[in-house]
Amino acid sequence: MSNNQQLYKTKKLPEQMLAEFDTAARLKKLKAISVADYRSERGEVVAALLEKYATLHNNELCMGYAERLRACADRNNFYLGEDFVDKKTGELFSGFGTLFGCGLKLCQSCTARSAARNRAIALRAVKNTEPQNREHYCYITDGYIVEQERYRFVTLTMPEIFASFKTTLKIQKRAWDLFRKLKIVKNYFPAIIKSIEFTVRKNKTYHDHIHLLAISFFLPDELLKQAWTDCVRTAFEEFGIQFVAKQANANYKLVRNPTDMVKEVCKYITKTTTWDEIPPEQLIEIAEIERWDRLFEVSGRFRQTLARLKAEDAAADPSSSSNKKTTLKDNVARELNYFNTDGISDGELPETSESSENSEEISKKPRRENWRDTIRRDGLEKYLEKFYRQVEFAQKIRKLRLILKYPDAKFTDLDGRAWDLAELEKFALQIRLAADEIPH
Ligand SMILES: [Zn+2]
């Protein structure tokens, strides 16, 4: 049915339709504001909690964490935009976001942003990877069957342990490392997207689990459970915890439409309300984790797909080619980009070389100095001085980018204050001057 027919059928007067449209748009905007409000408030609360602890223990790193989180949760750091134009469909939409991103795991805005990014990566990988038409002799309990590759969704859980969030995560990581190196996993799972999720049980223990969206061959439930249980048992033992459960659980189901499952594998690490259930001292422990293991991972053939697409994009657009000589302009662009994406994942290993799936190899690369290093070297006071300037700079850059991308949109902060366009224009001129002044 075409749009016109629909309009005719509903027999609504144009004014009435317009009023309804207005209400829908207003409701959407109110919903955006309430989500932004919530994220801002949560950030403030967690920052205050951390600060209280940090002051008590004179812990500069924790104070730095609180300040970064607070800057991200600041109502000025949020933007609301109306009348964005979708370039493909021409439709108008409204939206909101943060200008500076702290990248911290306890930040509602930044974890939402990183989940969205993971979703985009996973979708790209899945949409461009078809299960291959190849036959495989698969174990069943009393022999073999011949099967082909299919999409499957797997959930791996661990028995309850009385340990902190950090320790639970470490044990899970160890079990996963053992599991993914098993011959059976290598043979049966040629392509894997992995993510980690957790909930808090009533007794305050953590229910950590792993989700996989994978291309795999058939494997009987019992064999999968056995393999995973062995890995979890070893991990428990290495951490001095007795494994008393009968087994660790592994769930395995066929997926008809893999793109629909992408959102299942790319949810937030936990529901937003979960953070309220974590005792403060454990929140602090989370804040103090400096190196997060990868929570989201793409491996095997999915990874090859992404590498191929990246190479194709580069070939189609020679200006983005990496072997081109970098110019001053590129350097400035990179600098601007750095502020834009700074700390999208605090301390998490970045996705680097496409061919290497080995974390040991990745860690050999020189590490970029992070905010914790700066506090350790220069002290908190000096760091914060620099940090506030960085935030202001990052916010202005982001505003300019948004204006360039959506020239017809109207922007305000979370309290409805319009942006100072004259000031932004002055800033744009200033950074252009600064770029020209950088010596060659
Ligand atoms: Zn943030």
Question: How would you describe this structure to a colleague?
Answer:
- The protein is an alpha+beta fold.
- It folds into two domains: 20-104 and 372-437, no CATH class; 121-353, no CATH class.
- The chain is built from 15 helices and ten strands.
- A five-stranded antiparallel sheet has the order 8-5-7-6-9, with helices on both faces. A three-stranded antiparallel sheet has the order 2-1-10, covered by helices on one side.
- Residues 335-345 and 349-363 have low confidence and may be disordered.
- The structure holds zinc ion (ZN).
- The site of zinc ion has 7 residues, from helix 4.
Shape verdict: globular
Rg, rounded, reads 25 Å
Q: How much helical structure, as a percent, in the residues?
A: 40-55%
Strand order of the largest sheet: 8-5-7-6-9
Return the structural class. alpha+beta
- Tell me about the largest β-sheet: 5 strands, antiparallel
Number of domains: 2
What's the average pLDDT?
A: 82
Strand residue content: 15-25%
> What is the helix/strand order?
HHHEEHEEEHHEEHEHHEHHHHHEH
Say which molecules are bound, naming each kind only once.
Answer: zinc ion
